[in-house]
């Protein structure tokens, strides 16, 4: 990992998969020069989703969130990314997201906001270990990175 990067967890949610936005969303991060270290498609079991969103379990929308997130496959990604990953995602409410962000460009409802991104280094570490086994994460040098993305 380059010095300025941290690992984060990005996920295209079921609506993003249904709406064929997987490539678009991945491309945004790739084009910025972020390094992909893990990738898989899966329909998440209920227990995994409950652990992933455990901080929200008392919120009134939690049952709907579980139904939404379990409604179909998601695409989970581990990325080495600088802090701006979250800024590229936009606000939780897509209508408050600036145009140019993923949520600002592709969606309108908080309950259908197409993509997840970790909100801190600590939650990224927790989420990566929930969604990926160590053996599913790739260790390699991105040559473009070391030479052309960072100076
Ligand atoms: P985040 O995804 O921007 O980090 P969180 O507050 O962590 O936002 O909430 C997780 C997800 O739960 C949101 O992305 C959204 O899909 C859903 N959610 C959050 N707040 C609401 C709400 O008020 N109504 C419906 N769904 C919500
Ligand atoms: Mg969150």
Total individual domains: 1
Task: Name the hetero compounds present.
Answer: inosine-5'-diphosphate, magnesium ion
Point out poorly predicted stretches: none
Overall outline: globular
Q: What is the count of helical runs?
A: 8
Q: What kind of sheet is the major sheet?
A: 4 strands, antiparallel
Mean pLDDT: 94
Examine the coordinates and then state which fold CATH places here, giving the name of the CATH topology. Answer: Alpha-Beta Plaits
- Which structural class fits the helix and strand makeup? alpha+beta
Q: How are strands sequenced across the largest beta sheet?
A: 2-3-1-4
Q: Provide the helix percentage.
A: 25-40%
By DSSP, the count of extended strands is 4
Computed CA radius of gyration, to the nearest angstrom: 15 Å
Determine and state the CATH class.
Alpha Beta
CATH superfamily: Nucleoside diphosphate kinase-like domain
Helix and strand run: EHHEHHEHHEHH
Strand content: 15-25%
Distance between the termini: 14 Å
Short description:
By secondary structure, this protein is an alpha+beta fold. Helices cover 39% and strands 17% of the residues.
Please give a structural write-up.
- InterPro entries: NDK-like_dom, NDK-like_dom_sf, Nucleoside_diP_kinase, Nucleoside_diP_kinase_AS.
- By secondary structure, this protein is an alpha+beta fold.
- It has one domain (8-133): Alpha-Beta Plaits (2-Layer Sandwich).
- The protein has eight helices and four strands, in the order E-H-H-E-H-H-E-H-H-E-H-H.
- A four-stranded antiparallel beta sheet has the order 2-3-1-4.
- The protein is globular and about 45 Å long.
- It starts with 5 loop residues before the first strand and ends with a helix.
- It binds inosine-5'-diphosphate and magnesium ion.
- Residues 56, 61, 65, 92, 110-111, 113, 116, 119 line the site of inosine-5'-diphosphate (IDP).
């Amino acid at each position: 990992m380059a010095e300025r990067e941290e690992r984060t967890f990005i996920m295209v949610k079921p609506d993003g998969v249904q709406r064929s936005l997987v490539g678009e969303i991945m491309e945004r991060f790739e084009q910025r020069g972020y390094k992909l270290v893990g990738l898989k498609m899966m329909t998440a079991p209920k227990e995994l989703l409950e652990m992933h969103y455990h901080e929200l379990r008392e919120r009134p929308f939690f049952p709907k969130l579980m139904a939404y997130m379990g409604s179909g496959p998601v695409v989970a990604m581990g990325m080495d990314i600088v802090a701006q990953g979250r800024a590229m995602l936009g606000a939780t409410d897509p209508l408050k997201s600036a145009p140019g962000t993923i949520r600002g460009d592709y969606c309108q409802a908080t309950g259908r906001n197409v993509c997840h991104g970790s909100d801190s280094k600590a939650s990224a570490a927790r989420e990566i270990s929930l969604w990926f086994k160590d053996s599913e994460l790739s260790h390699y040098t991105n040559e473009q990175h070391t030479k052309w993305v960072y100076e």
